Amino acid sequence: MTENVPRTEVAFAKANGIEVAYDTFGRPGAPPLLLITGLGFQMIMWDEEFCSRLAACGYFVIRSDNRDIGLSSKFHHAGVPNISALLKAQGKKSTPEVPYTIADMAMDSMGLLDALEIQTAHVTGLSMGGMIGQIMAAKFPGRVRTFISMMSSSGDPALPPPTPEAQAVLYTPLPIERAKYIESWVNIWRVLSGSSYPVEEALARKWASQSYARGLNPDGIARQLAAVIASGSRKELLKSITVPTLVLHGDADPLVPLECGIDTARAIPGAKLEIIKGMGHALPRVLWPGIIDRIRKHAV
Q1: What pLDDT score does 250 carry?
Q2: Structure confidence by residue, pLDDT tens digits, 96-121
Q3: What does pTM read for this prediction?
Q4: How far is Cα 168 from Cα 256, in angstroms, rounded to an integer?
Q5: Which end of the chain, N or C, is more open, meaning fewer C-beta atoms within 10 Å of its C-beta?
Q6: Sequence ranges of the domains in the chain
Q7: pLDDT for the residue numbered 91
């Protein structure tokens, strides 16, 4: 019963020299489970009902805003990166400098665990969050109990790109005016959800309204994208992961194609791969029970 799950208000932790906004679900004494979200998405994309259901399985669930998004620290002073230059340099030995990298964001998450006095935690990362989690699992195996990489990638530039429609979503700035922002948001989820599990518009509008109310930072999304591009391939790093790892990926993902998940699982020794039929680059409500069950069985 999720209505009895304890939940905290948003709080702020000093982590890696910045402020990270977070909240929690469940009992602090339960096994910690850190949820890391993706590019441009605030922590509310881990829906509160989803988090409460996880906590009801016996976890202390922590979700947070990545740097440069939501209520966490912004990097306005860093300016807007040249994404075109980064894409042209992708895969080459030298790349243009960026304000921060995925490794920096991994240290933010480690700093959050430190601030909460959590020695070890289960880690689940979605999309860019999976990339952040990969670095945590590789570099801090003593702190990560288990790891789940969802809808993510090794960063190998040889992997298939997004579909043209998904690529357009990635590189098209969202409008600032509220009504247009919400409609654009719903359209994004129409593209990312795929045809097997059409977007649940009420849920998408709720997330859009909450994100808008918490504050927009378009330049921060560009800086996060720059971090993803500039961080390059993690395939060699993934070979060093010893943490029990599960890779979850949908076979209808238009943004991070299935081949990216397969490649990630192959690169991590002993990783298990589960392909979810019909799932795109989204977590539709109808799939929550199955996703939560997979997390529960893996994060032990």
Answers
A1: 97
A2: 789 999 999 999 999 999 999 999 99
A3: 0.96
A4: 13
A5: N
A6: 2-160+219-298
A7: 62
Q: Is 2 exposed, middle or buried (0-12, 13-18, 19+ CB in 10 A)?
A: middle
- Residues of the chain scoring pLDDT < 70: 1, 91-95
- Tokens 């243009």 map to which residue? 96
User: Could you count the other beta carbons within 10 Å of the beta carbon of residue 92?
Assistant: 9
Residue with tokens 């504050």: 215
Q: What is the pLDDT of residue 247?
A: 98
**Domain at 2-160+219-298: CATH architecture:** 3-Layer(aba) Sandwich (3.40)
Task: Give the residues across from 19 on adjacent strands.
Answer: 14
Beta strands across the sheet bearing 144-150? 11-15, 18-25, 60-64, 32-36, 121-126, 144-150, 245-250, 272-276
User: Length of the chain in residues, anyone?
Assistant: 300
Q: DSSP labels for the chain?
A: -GGG--BPPPEEEEETTEEEEEEEES-TTSPEEEEE--TT--GGGS-HHHHHHHHHTT-EEEEEPPTTSTTSPP-GGG----HHHHHHHTTSS-----S--HHHHHHHHHHHHHHTT-S-EEEEEETHHHHHHHHHHHH-TTTEEEEEEES-----TTS----HHHHHHHHSPPPSSHHHHHHHHHHHHHHHHTTTS---HHHHHHHHHHHHHH---HHHHHHHHHHHHHH---HHHHTT--S-EEEEEETT-SSS-HHHHHHHHHHSTT-EEEEETT--SS--GGGHHHHHHHHHHH--
With 0-12 CB in 10 A as exposed, 13-18 as middle and 19+ as buried, what is 97? exposed
What are the structure tokens assigned to 228, written together?
A: 């993803």
Residue 180: is it exposed, middle or buried by C-beta count within 10 angstroms (0-12/13-18/19+)?
Answer: exposed
Q: Which residue has the tokens 């340099």?
A: 89
